[in-house]
Amino acid sequence: MTNDQDGTTGGPRQNFRAEPRHKELDATKRKLAAVMDEKDAIDGFSNAKVAMVLTDPRADDNPIVYVNAAFEKMTGYSRSAVIGRNCRFLQGDETRKTDVDNLRAAVNDGRDLSIDIQNYRADGRPFVNRLIIAPITDGNGDIIYYLGIQKPLHDTEREDGELNEKLSSLQSRVQEDLSLVLKSLGETTEDEPLEFEAMTRRMECLQLVYEAMLLSDSQGLRSRGIDLGALISRVAASIAYEEGRPGIRYQQQIESVVVNLEASVRVSLLLSEVLFNAFHHAFDRLEEGLIELRLTRLAAGGLRLVVTDDGVGLPSNICFPDMTTIGGRLIATLADGLDATITPVRGAAGTVVMLDVPAGMMDV
């Protein structure tokens, strides 16, 4: 069965033209609604209710390098206003010095910390922030990011042990997933610097996974698994929205496939890399083109993910995945963890990338 444009099953193939991000709001809402329900189309992507921040402790003054939409909503500060700044701008007159000292000591020692701290929104209003920080390490064990999970607390939540458990679970999940992504950066050279735009895209992809995870938790459905079909519909639509241009059409046929959380993370990240490559490289010097995505449950119980384009084709001197690039190494790492088979095919026009995941790697 396929997911209809209204979220039901059994309907026609989804088909919309990817447009640049500067179109008017009504056009954007129509395009998003092609793969999401109306509420999600209005709310947009990556709006997990828990704020997330990444900082770079290797740079001077440990500046912010990423925040999600929930952080912007919680604090009133836009992403562009905070990137490159230390998080101390959230502090104010009533922020306790002991809390600040504890935060600084945890960062200096490279350890986790959970703390309730008085912070201030952009308009000056105070709020109590449940903050969990944790180091993110690379393959060599070196700390290259600090993760902050944040949630404003109401009076009734101060002693809520279940809330802290959920936030800690999310922190552990993000640490694990970011470490997985960063393994692919271990061979980065000076000629191939870490691109923060690419890291932001990967974080946005993970955000959608965490939304699905938190939704399953809130409904008591996590033990039943994650609906991968619904998840990658949103991941793909987000990429088409951000990376599309006039003339490039996008279609998808996606079945409902329930998988475990680990598989949902790996497949979503892998799709993000492959689909991003298609939008960016498949149509060089071409005015029009088509990208198709299909997700199918196999008779033997596994799944097959296929990304097809009718563009210029994969150059004969390029292997896929290209292990000389960060994205290529990430694709290989993700596929290895799924025990999956990646098959690239050079067609008469364009490229087909097929991913087969065996049933045993998906079981809930």
Helix content: 25-40%
CATH architecture of the largest domain: 2-Layer Sandwich
- The CATH superfamily title of the largest domain: Histidine kinase-like ATPase, C-terminal domain
What's the CATH class of the largest domain, please? Alpha Beta
Give the N-to-C terminal Cα separation: 20 Å
Shape: elongated
Number of domains: 2
Report mean pLDDT, rounded to a whole number: 79
Number of helices: 10
**Radius of gyration from the alpha-carbon trace, in angstroms:** 21 Å
Oligomer type: single chain
Unreliable stretches covering 5 or more consecutive residues:
1-48, 187-194
- Strand-pairing-aware structural class: alpha+beta
Largest sheet report? 6 strands, mixed
Strand order of the largest sheet: 1-8-10-11-13-12
Strand content: 15-25%
Concise synopsis of the structure shown:
This is PAS domain S-box-containing protein. This protein is of the alpha+beta class and 364 residues long.
